[in-house]
Amino acid sequence: MELLINHKSASPADNNAVIECRDLTKKFGNFLAVDRISFSVKPGEIFGFLGANGAGKTTAMRMLCGLSYPSSGHATVAGFDVYRQQEKIKRHIGYMSQKFSLYDDLTPLENIQFFGGIYGVPARVIKERSRELVRSLGLEKEATKLVSGLPLGWKQKLAFAIALFHQPRIVFLDEPTGGVDPVTRRQFWDMIYEAAEKGVTIFVTTHYMDEAAYCNRVTIMVDGKIEALDTPASLMQQFACDNMDEVFYRLARTARRKDP
Amino acid sequence: MRTLRFILQKEFRQMFRDKTILAMMFMLPVIQLGILPLAMNLDVKNINLAIVDQDHSTYAQKLISKIGASGYFRIVTVAPAYKQALFTLENGTADIILEIPASFERNLVREGRQPLNITADAINGTKSGIGSSYLLTVIRDFNRDIRLMSNGQPVASPAGIEIASTAWFNPYERFTWYIVPGVLVLLLTLVGGFLSSLNIVREKEIGTIEQINVTPIKKWQFILGKLIPFWVVGMIVLTIGLLVARLFYGIVPVGSLILLYLLAAVYLVALLGFGLLVSTISNNQLQSMFIAFFFIMIFVLMSGLFTSVDSMPAWARSVAAFLPITHFMKAVRMIILKGSTLGDISPILIYESLFAIGLNALAIWNYRKTQ
């Protein structure tokens, strides 16, 4: 599968973290959705963000994407500040929300054209690349039919491909495989690996623990705080568990917050 | 500009795939302009009259047939006594009772005077008021006729002043000339106000706004991308409306069509700015609908479409004077009926422009890409 990510060779600046977070906090009234989280993500890394529902994963991700103002703390994404330079951040990132948010009343090709267009991809390039993209996704027959008719798995793959279409440096995926069958999930992770190989940094939230093992590093969030952050192998060692499932249960058991 | 082109392409695609919007765009002006003006007829006709004739004389007969021939009254019953007639008033079959007393003809001939009694059902104030005055006119006419008959020569009426009125700008006093431009304004306001107020909030409901907010799109590009398609729809509605006015009612604007379109173009931008502002304020389509409905109701009722602004109390007059729709309504009537020129309506044009700029600026400001 060709995903058409083409990154310039790593410049010295690229060796620094692409996402840098220090004591990042989000409060809604008295509720601490995200409580002083700190971490940094290296270029080309697949960074997993784990946590139960309501642990604060999406809120943290929204702040990093420039969709939400942090209450306190510091963070930079692609070298830009999350308080003042959200619009600059948005040029360099791709985003896929947990709810499918392409236009149902447009065709896959029209969706690609629209999002490519507003990211400033030249029309000629959009045309060429969208044709290749449709082929690689196996959507030739559906390319000119409305998205509303596509099965969820295909919609998610399309959404991911569109998030990568303008060749961002970082792509944020918020529970991308929720409600998707195991085969499609597997294909989805193949796409993620391909993108990462091309140098795209992947920031992905999930609560499928088998997926956590695919990440280079994972953080586990409990009640808005980061409780663990390491490679899956060292986490299993550290907590003396055989798999990520057990690691997660041991940490998540301590959660006091209920599902919202 | 490039970005805007992509947004417009997407908006137009979505709009032309929405059958409801397409149907609204063509059916609304044709059907509403075809029906509403006829329903809003302000002339009072078919006044139900109950007559109590206790005289049964030639004169009484003449009076009754004169009333019947006037064309405004439907004589529902000729009752022998006031009590029966009052019953028809109470159960709603009659609007007005005319009582002719027993000595009607004798008194008229011998004493030259005879009081009559008119009782009107005042629940429908307009109908009873206008009905009674029509009835008085008919009776006064009858009075002059019988004096003429008895004396053989015309008597000088005590009030010798004859008033002849001419209806300027609407010489045949056709109510449609007054109502149709008003309904046209109503249509533009409804289409523009509701369509735009439901649009951005719809993207919020579906969740697509999130995908938009995470792109480097500029706020003004997004708002303008929403505004232009609805503006085009509004202009199409106006065009169809003007055609219907011409074909159904024979109303051809006396003034310049270009001026009319210019004025409507500016008004639509203001109105769409209002709708988009409502859309950025609301969280779901239901909220948006209610807010838009609340304001558009006020706009329409205070604009002078149904009632004259001049006869409102002072506070209401100042509200009306503030609303852009009031001025737009006035200017549309001026151009269509009077043939007013740019010079006449330029203050209104400037006033609408201020709203157009202000409301859209507010909508852009209130649209938040980062919460």
UniProtKB/TrEMBL annotation, chain A:
SMART domains: AAA
InterPro entries for the chain: AAA+_ATPase, ABC_transporter-like_ATP-bd, P-loop_NTPase
Keywords: ATP-binding, Nucleotide-binding
Signal peptide interval: none
Domain ABC transporter: 19-248
UniProt-recorded Gene Ontology molecular function terms: ATP binding; ATP hydrolysis activity
Keyword Coiled coil: no
CDD domains from the UniProt entry: ABC_DR_subfamily_A
One Pfam family linked to the record: ABC_tran
The protein's name in its UniProt record: ABC-2 type transport system ATP-binding protein
Organism for this UniProt entry: Niabella drilacis (strain DSM 25811 / CCM 8410 / CCUG 62505 / LMG 26954 / E90)
From TrEMBL, chain B:
UniProt KW keywords: Cell membrane, Membrane, Transmembrane, Transmembrane helix, Transport
GO cellular component: ATP-binding cassette (ABC) transporter complex
Membrane topology of this protein: Multi-pass membrane protein
Superkingdom field: Bacteria
Domain ABC transmembrane type-2: start-end pairs: 145-370
Primary subcellular site in the record, as a coarse category: membrane
The keyword Cell membrane appears for this protein: yes
A Pfam family recorded for this sequence: ABC2_membrane_3
Subcellular location: Cell membrane
One GO MF term attached to the UniProt entry: ABC-type transporter activity
Transmembrane segments: 21-40, 175-195, 228-252, 258-278, 290-309, 348-367
Keyword flag Repeat: no
Family classification: Belongs to the ABC-2 integral membrane protein family.
Protein name: Transport permease protein
